[in-house]
């Protein structure tokens, strides 16, 4: 399955779903079987020119032209009032952790409900390149993963690997199989320097030493670690916790991990490993005890849980456009502080009874956002490790504070470069001043106005621009939205179902005449 056929497959699926057609309906239009459409959309079918033409005709979509005309962009017409209900999809970050953890299992892994996003495609390209067999099954959101007996890290797709930070999480699984291996430097959002040292420090307790050479991490493993290991993380990061858990999962004996993150993606990883027979005590707390096993060879199915960051994004869409919408399937445990801060700012919500996600663990609620008169919070808004306000949800408060009356301060102590990207909101009319690299002063309310903007090179700030554009008078052309597609599945189409007016176009923005 090549990257090109996968992205063409996705384009076809997007065009089909934007017409509300089932795979069966498209198959009828093409005069082919539904299973063929399924294979095409999954990128598992070589397309003949005649099939490309048939697809282009049926979907009224000039596929070849489209595919070669540069970046994807969004044209957003505002202001919009939204209404209706929308479901939160599963999380990028949990999918990343669990996909990496599938390397630990020699049995068949099926991951259900995976969001079809660029980040998943990148890690899948990397997995495929090292010999893992991946097949999209069901309606196209379930992934079957079968790893070979011997992985081939030497064949790694470097281009794909360098575009995702999650490649770092191959260190934990691979150290079980190789004494000596190399991984390309990690990518991900441009948020300023993102440290890898905590990963090296934690994994050194499992016998791994890593040196950085020529844009690669060169890893060496010495296997004489004690049976009862104590690892105290030097910071409570998410991916470092996940890496240490994956290293411990297949190292026989007990590993106690202190200062661990209890965040949503870490919990999903732990629930998945439990299904594989790895006992983990303390899930959701800062001390985890992992009972490692020598080998894992289990056929397993796991549902990834709903994304609290996507939930916050969709709630923000309702708040900034002063609309009434219901965001279903919000993982409430990971949004508690966000709701408390919004409540203080005057935001009115209605909550449904709690129910459980498909993984049988994560607590969900449906949340209705009511149009509200917001005022600035009394204190600065700042993130903390779980169970604090999530760092990835902080950017949405910049848009919300710009909507509120009064003066707010957003304090991002975590990243050197994320606050800077949020100052882009001033191009849409917000009164935002960067006090220093970590603090924003925002004076609202804002009369948002549309214009052409290049996406900032960071996922959440880019989505913030999109959300503000929904409330902005006129047209916003948001250019080069790869960064948004990295973490959100089909956002324009889903927001359009609520009444937004977002067009997808490729290449240059349309001219006025
Ligand atoms: C694939 C994935 O899951 N990515 C998420 C993960 O990235 P990841 O776990 O890779 O986070 P990073 O290590 O890049 O960033 C965390 C930042 O917080 C700092 N820090 C963190 C904890 C702490 O106790 N002290 C401290 O200083 C780190 O030094 C670093 O600057 O977690 C980040 C923080 O939640 C999220 O933004 C990312 O979306
Ligand atoms: C920073 C993020 O992701 P990543 O770690 O993949 O760059 C994010 O999800 O906002």
TrEMBL record:
<dbReference type="InterPro" id="IPR036968">
    <property type="entry name" value="Enolpyruvate_Tfrase_sf"/>
</dbReference>
<comment type="pathway">
    <text>Cell wall biogenesis; peptidoglycan biosynthesis.</text>
</comment>
<dbReference type="InterPro" id="IPR010982">
    <property type="entry name" value="Lambda_DNA-bd_dom_sf"/>
</dbReference>
<dbReference type="GO" id="GO:0008760">
    <property type="term" value="F:UDP-N-acetylglucosamine 1-carboxyvinyltransferase activity"/>
</dbReference>
<comment type="similarity">
    <text>Belongs to the EPSP synthase family. MurA subfamily.</text>
</comment>
<dbReference type="InterPro" id="IPR013792">
    <property type="entry name" value="RNA3'P_cycl/enolpyr_Trfase_a/b"/>
</dbReference>
<keyword id="KW-0961">Cell wall biogenesis/degradation</keyword>
<feature type="domain" description="HTH cro/C1-type">
    <location>
        <begin position="12"/>
        <end position="66"/>
    </location>
</feature>
<comment type="function">
    <text>Cell wall formation. Adds enolpyruvyl to UDP-N-acetylglucosamine.</text>
</comment>
<keyword id="KW-0963">Cytoplasm</keyword>
<dbReference type="GO" id="GO:0008360">
    <property type="term" value="P:regulation of cell shape"/>
</dbReference>
<dbReference type="InterPro" id="IPR001986">
    <property type="entry name" value="Enolpyruvate_Tfrase_dom"/>
</dbReference>
<dbReference type="Pfam" id="PF00275">
    <property type="entry name" value="EPSP_synthase"/>
</dbReference>
<keyword id="KW-0131">Cell cycle</keyword>
<dbReference type="GO" id="GO:0003677">
    <property type="term" value="F:DNA binding"/>
</dbReference>
<dbReference type="GO" id="GO:0009252">
    <property type="term" value="P:peptidoglycan biosynthetic process"/>
</dbReference>
<dbReference type="GO" id="GO:0051301">
    <property type="term" value="P:cell division"/>
</dbReference>
<keyword id="KW-0133">Cell shape</keyword>
<keyword id="KW-0808">Transferase</keyword>
<dbReference type="InterPro" id="IPR001387">
    <property type="entry name" value="Cro/C1-type_HTH"/>
</dbReference>
<dbReference type="GO" id="GO:0005737">
    <property type="term" value="C:cytoplasm"/>
</dbReference>
<keyword id="KW-0573">Peptidoglycan synthesis</keyword>
<protein>
    <recommendedName>
        <fullName>UDP-N-acetylglucosamine 1-carboxyvinyltransferase</fullName>
        <ecNumber>2.5.1.7</ecNumber>
    </recommendedName>
</protein>
<dbReference type="InterPro" id="IPR050068">
    <property type="entry name" value="MurA_subfamily"/>
</dbReference>
<dbReference type="GO" id="GO:0071555">
    <property type="term" value="P:cell wall organization"/>
</dbReference>
<dbReference type="Pfam" id="PF01381">
    <property type="entry name" value="HTH_3"/>
</dbReference>
<keyword id="KW-0132">Cell division</keyword>
């Amino acid at each position: 399955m090549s990257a090109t056929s996968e992205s063409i497959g996705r384009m076809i699926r997007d065009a089909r779903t934007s017409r509300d057609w089932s795979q069966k309906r498209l198959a009828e239009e093409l005069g082919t079987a539904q299973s063929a459409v399924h294979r095409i959309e999954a990128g598992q079918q070589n397309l003949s020119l005649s099939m490309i033409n048939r697809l282009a005709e049926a979907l009224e979509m000039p596929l070849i032209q489209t595919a070669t005309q540069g970046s994807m962009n969004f044209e957003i017409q505002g202001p919009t009032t939204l209404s209706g209900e929308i479901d939160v999809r599963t999380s990028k970050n949990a999918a990343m952790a669990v996909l990496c953890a599938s390397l630990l299992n020699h049995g068949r892994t099926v991951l259900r409900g995976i969001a079809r996003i660029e980040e998943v495609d990148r890690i899948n390209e990397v997995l495929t390149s090292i010999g893992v067999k991946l097949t999209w099954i069901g309606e196209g959101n379930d992934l079957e993963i079968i790893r070979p007996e011997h992985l081939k890290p030497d064949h790694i797709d470097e281009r794909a690997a360098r575009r995702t930070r999650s490649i770092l999480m191959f260190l934990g699984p691979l150290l079980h199989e190789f004494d000596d291996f190399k991984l390309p430097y990690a990518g991900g959002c441009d948020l300023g320097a993102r440290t890898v040292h905590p990963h090296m420090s934690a994994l050194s307790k499992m016998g791994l030493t890593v040196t950085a050479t020529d844009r690669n991490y060169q890893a060496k493993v010495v296997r004489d670690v004690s049976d009862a290991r104590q690892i105290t993380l030097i910071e409570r990061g998410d991916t470092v916790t996940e890496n240490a858990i994956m290293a411990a999962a297949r190292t026989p004996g007990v590993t106690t991990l202190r200062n661990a993150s209890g965040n949503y993606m870490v919990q999903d990883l732990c629930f998945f490993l439990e299904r594989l027979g790895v006992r983990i005590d303390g899930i959701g707390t800062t001390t985890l005890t992992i009972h490692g096993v020598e080998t894992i060879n289990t056929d397993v199915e796991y549902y990834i849980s709903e994304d609290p960051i996507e939930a916050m994004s969709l709630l923000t869409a309702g708040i900034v456009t002063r609309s009434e919408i219901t965001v279903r399937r919000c993982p409430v445990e990971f949004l508690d502080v966000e709701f408390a801060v919004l409540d203080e700012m005057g935001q009115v919500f209605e909550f449904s009874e709690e129910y459980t996600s498909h993984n049988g663990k994560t607590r969900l609620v449906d949340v209705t956002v009511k149009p509200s008169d917001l005022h600035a919070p009394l204190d600065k808004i700042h993130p903390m490790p779980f169970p604090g306000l999530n760092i990835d949800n902080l950017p949405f408060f910049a848009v919300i504070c710009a909507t509120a009356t009064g003066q707010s301060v957003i304090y991002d102590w975590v990243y050197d470069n994320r606050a800077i990207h949020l100052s882009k909101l001033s191009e849409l009319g917000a009164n935002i001043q960067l006090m220093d690299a970590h603090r924003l002063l925002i004076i609202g309310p804002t009369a948002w106005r549309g214009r052409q903007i290049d996406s900032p090179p960071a996922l959440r700030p880019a989505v913030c621009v999109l959300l503000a554009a929904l409330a902005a008078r006129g047209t916003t052309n948001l250019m080069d939205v790869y960064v948004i597609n990295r973490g959100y599945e089909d956002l324009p189409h889903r927001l359009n179902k609520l009444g937004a007016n977002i067009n997808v176009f490729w290449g240059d923005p349309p001219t006025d005449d």
